[in-house]
Design goal:
By secondary structure, the chain is mainly α. It is built from seven helices and two strands; from the N terminus they run αααβααααβ. The relative contact order is 0.12.
Length: 147
């Protein structure tokens, strides 16, 4: 989880630069203008980021914590498998966000519910035979320690 938090700090820069680029190219003057377009653009940029790094084995944060993403046979991920892992990794966030959408809850409540889901999703890995996260099992990937 420490690697995950470090990855979030690194992604702040990626999202910041990407958001700036999107707003400059689309001539967006207010942060709430063209919000669905920005979200789709960021989903694409993050997909490119993770697919590219995972297909090479590690993101920058994973290098720091000596973690590598491999397929079930221990080989380097192909780009389609890395993309599948990226799409399935959204299970960390999407269920609570979709569940709270019809209720128009304040951001703090959505954040608390999302954090609660993240904790539950992490604990569900205890029920997997190899104790790996379910999105990795479904994508045919796993995380290994590297010396």
């Amino acid at each position: 989880m420490a690697c995950w938090l470090y990855e979030g700090m690194l992604l702040f820069g990626v999202v910041f630069i990407s958001g700036y680029l999107f707003s400059a190219l689309s001539q967006t003057r207010h942060a709430m203008d063209n919000r669905p377009g920005l979200q789709a653009f960021l989903f694409l940029i993050l997909g490119i980021y993770f697919t590219w790094f995972w297909s090479r084995g590690q993101t920058l944060a994973m290098k720091t914590w000596h973690i590598r993403a491999v397929d079930a046979a221990g080989q380097r991920l192909t780009q389609p498998r890395a993309l599948l892992r990226y799409v399935l990794s959204w299970l960390w966030f999407l269920p609570p966000l979709i569940a709270t959408l019809p209720f128009a809850l304040p951001a703090l409540e959505v954040g608390v519910l999302t954090l609660g889901w993240i904790i539950i999703w992490a604990l569900l890995s205890r029920f997997h035979p190899q104790r790996q996260f379910w999105h990795d099992a479904w994508a045919g990937t796993r995380l290994i320690s590297t010396p």
